[in-house]
Amino acid sequence: MLGKYKAVIAGIGVLLAAVAGFFLLGPGKNPDPGQVAQIQGKRNILVMGVDRRSGDTGRSDTLFVTMLDTSRNQAALLSIPRDTLVSIPGHGWDKVNHAYAYGGHELSRKTVENFLGIPISNYVLVDFQGFIKLVDAIGGVDIDVEKSMQYTDPYDGENGLVINLQPGKQHMDGTTAIQYVRYRDEEGDIGRVARQQKFMKAVFAKLRSASLLTRAPEIAHTLYQSIDTDLSAGDLASLLVTFAKNVSGTSQLETAMVQGSPAYIDDISYWIPNMTALRQQVAQLQGVQPGEGYRMAAQAAKKKYDELLGTNSAAGSGEKRTLQVQNQELKKAVEKARKMDKEKAALPVGDSSGTGKGSTAPNLPPPPPQKTLRASLVNCSGNPQYGVEAANDARNAGFAIVSITNGSPMDRTQVLINAGSSAAEERTGALPFDFQLIQGAVSPSSGDVVIYVGRDYGK
C-alpha cells in the first residue's frame, strides 16, 4: 500500500513541476521519417498551463514536454517558451502558445510534434486554480526567493494580479507559489523558466517527506480533480509508479529549454529557435542517435526559418535583437500575433492570482504601491481630435498624461519606452490602438513613455 501512496505523491510532483512553468505529458505512434522513432519504454507527454479568460478559449501560458523513460526510470523536462516562433498546421507561422487558442490541445500537440520531431500522444491541462490546489495539497513548498518581486497588474483578472514577494527563504502555499512562477522581470520568459525550474526542485524536495504518505488518499483526490487529460486512470497510475522510483532524489530529472535566442520582429516579442541545435538537443534527451531522416528534417526546418527571416537569420544570439520584416509571410505572422495579443489583453482573466471572487486561497497582503507610469503624448496625426482620444485611451490603460503637444507629421503611431523597461512594455499592451513599439531613451521630463499619434490612429 505504501508503494501505491508513494506513486501518487510522486505523480503530483511531476504535475506540479510541469504546472510551475505552465505545464506537460504520451505513448507510441508511427513517426514520419523526420521524427525520432518511438523507443520501447519511452513516452513523450505534453502538459500545458492554460490561461483561461472569459469569452475566450485561452492560451497555453507555458508548455513543457516530459520525456519519460520507464525502462531506465529517468525523466527529462523540455520547456518551450510561449513566444517561440513555429509553424502551426492550418494557420501558418505564429507563436506556439497561440496554437491552443486556434485548436485546443489537439492542435497544440500536432504543432509541438512537428516542431520537435518526436511523437506525442497525450496531454494534460492545468489552469491557475488547479495549480493552487495542487500546491496546497502537498502542504506548500519552501523557496529561497532571490530578490524582491513586487508589482500590481490591474488589467489581469477581475481583481488584478498582485505579486508581493520579499527576498529570502520562505514557505509558500499555492496562492503565494503562483506569484513566484508567474513573476516577470526584464528577462521575460527566460527568467520565468529559471524560476520554474527552481520551483520544480523545491517540489521534489518536499515529496521526499514521509509525512505526505499518510495524506496520500486526500492528495490523490485533489490530483484527479485538478487536471484535464486524455490519459486513462491506468496510464496515469503507470506514470505515477515510474516517478515513485525517482522520488528519492532529483539527480535523474534533467531540465532543459528549447535552444534559441530572443528577438523583436516589428515590435512583437519572439523566441527564435536554433533548429539544428534543437533537434540535436531533443535526440540527446531521448537518449538516441538521430537517423539520417531526422538530420535531414532538421536541416529542412532550418532552411524554412532562414527563408522566413531572410538576412535576419544570420544575426547572432544573446541580447534581444530587433529583426526586420522582409517578406509577406513574416508580415502576416506578425500581424496575427499582434491581433491575438491584443485580444488577450482585452479579456479578463478569471481569478488568475487566486484572489478573485470565490477563491478559497488565503488573502494576499494589500497590493504594494504601484509606480504610476507617466506618458507624454505627441500628436503627429494632424487631427486634433486624435490627440484627445489617444490621451483618453492612454489614461484608461493606466498612464498618467504629463503633456500633450503637436509634432511633425507621421503615418505610423509609435510608442517610445526606455530600453529594458519591462513594466512600461507590459503596460503598453493595454493600449487599444495599433502602434510600433520603440525601445530607446525617454527623457525624464517626458515621463516613462512617449506616445506619437500617427495618421493611422483610429483606422
Your description of this structure?
There is one protein chain. The protein has 459 residues and is α/β, with parallel strands linked by helices. The chain has 2 domains: 306 residues, LCP protein (Aminopeptidase, 3-Layer(aba) Sandwich), CATH 3.40.630; 81 residues, Alpha-Beta Plaits, CATH 3.30.70. Helix content is 37%, strand content 26%. The chain has a 6-stranded mixed β-sheet with strand order 11-6-1-2-3-12, with helices on both faces. A 5-stranded mixed β-sheet has the order 17-16-20-18-19, with helices on one face. A 3-stranded mixed β-sheet has the order 14-13-15. A hairpin with a 4-residue loop joins strand 2 and strand 3. The N and C termini lie far apart (66 Å). 44% of the residues are buried. The N terminus is likely disordered.
Shape estimate: globular
Kindly, what is the distance between the CA atoms of the first and last residues, rounded to a whole number of angstroms?
66 Å
**Mean pLDDT over the residues:** 76
Largest sheet: 6 strands, mixed
